[in-house]
Amino acid sequence: MSQIQDSLKPIVALCKRRGFVYPGSEIYGGFANTYSFGPYGVELKRNIKDLWWKMFVHERRDMVGLDGPILLHPKAWKASGHVDGFSDALIDCKACKSRFRCDHLIEETLHQNADDLTLVQMTDLVHQNKVKCPKCGASDFTEARHFNLMFQTHMSKTGADGDVAYLRPETAQAIFLDYKNIVDTVRVKLPFGVAQIGKAFRNEITPGNFVFRVIEFEQMEIEYFTREAAWEKTFDSWLQEMHRWCKRIGLKSARVHEKEHPKEQLSHYSKRTVDLVYDFPFGTSELYGLAYRTDFDLSRHAECSGQTIDYTDPETREKFIPHVIEPTFGVERTLLALLCDAYEEEKLENGEMRTVLHFAPCIAPVKVAVFPLMKKEPLAEKAQAVFATLQALWHCEYDESGAIGKRYRRQDELGTPFCITIDFDTLENDTVTLRDRDSMKQERVAIRDLVSHLAPKLH
Ligand code: ATP
């Protein structure tokens, strides 16, 4: 594990140093696998979510949005199969009490895929091969057992203690529960999709790799409803859309790959799943997923709620339950992939090193930073006027303290595409120095041309 974390260390350090991501509850010694997104992390996340909404809801005519509750009726989780089936196999080291996901332990120590093994088969493999605990080295494991990943809480609405409610482990189910409301209240016609962004919670057995696997995270999910006969075509077109998204946020295409799930490893609801995996520094791992959920969820909710959840064809009046293609995107994994993709320790011609995040402008937390060469007037007043103009259009930052070189370096580490310096020439001819983050080239641009000059580069 520490080796895995080592490959991420420079990025984790930058995230802390520059206010992207802090460990959760740090002043109390930390609270494992929780994180706060600092002033730049929150901007990055907002840019990801806003762009996703724009691309998948506003730029299409076949999509609508939803913001459903985190707490759904407990019967919904029974119907969806999560109460009985949303679990991982867990195994404990009796010597040091460390807990592991049994399939991961087998994969890491015996280099064998354990996805379709039963609990008994996994236990036998671990015991017979005398697998050593990666933490303490002892070969003394318990039996493998199921561990449900849903967090439970209790409601006392009826006055009776012990009414269990679950924090949602995926946002999808809220969409299925409101499918009927959407069909009845807004003019949607098959094929159409519903998008939702929101928190999901999973009591992961072995979280880790920074924000890659956390217990509280955000999902951006689409449930796309279509006719059964069209599922393959729809699946392929969403796969292309997911690649288009990766390009749009600036991920290097060579680092994004498709991974088809073998039939025997599919989730209980899926007939086909393809993951988009990304080459993270700690290995190639799932970034997003695309699943053909058939009519499983809507049929189960119809059955368990006793409600009719049919779609009526407007022309033929035929009634049926639509099938579903689900593209799902994790916000934190997107953020981590963007950071890994953008991060560079660059050796400059003069031998110095600079750390830079090469974010695509649409994703960058700050678009433009404005500096007066010195704090004193009339430079500061001029710089503030430039800042006010640009701030109305983009998220900008004003920085007047320290040497100009240091201010550039700080913005490089934040991934700010452009810096503007107001200097003594500005007072003479109303031009500023515009510095490009990636090439570090500087050019003089007239203040009156700044907006038209920057706009095409930032959009
Ligand atoms: P994994 O196999 O890595 O556990 P999964 O297949 O269970 O992931 P899904 O159920 O498909 O994941 O969840 C949809 C998306 O939500 C994932 O593609 C990922 O981006 C994100 N995600 C899932 N679990 C976590 C987690 N624990 N922390 C952060 N993001 C997550």
Task: Provide a descriptive summary of the structure in words.
There is one protein chain. This protein is of the alpha+beta class. The chain has two domains: 3-86 and 149-339, BirA Bifunctional Protein, domain 2; 366-458, Anticodon-binding domain (Rossmann fold), CATH 3.40.50.800. The protein is 34% helix and 27% strand. It has helices at residues 2-17, 39-58, 74-79, 82-85, 102-110, 119-128, 172-177, 179-185, 231-248, 296-305, 331-342, 379-391, 404-414, 424-429, 450-458, and strands at residues 21-23, 35-37, 63-65, 87-92, 99-101, 145-148, 152-155, 163-166, 192-201, 216-226, 256-260, 272-280, 283-294, 311-312, 319-320, 323-330, 343-347, 353-357, 368-372, 396-398, 418-422, 431-436, 442-446. The protein has a seven-stranded mixed beta sheet with strand order 3-9-10-16-13-12-11. A hairpin with a 5-residue loop joins β22 (431-436) and β23. α2 (39-58) crosses α11. The chain is globular and about 75 Å long. It binds adenosine-5'-triphosphate (ATP). Adenosine-5'-triphosphate (ATP) binds next to β10, β13, β16 and α11.
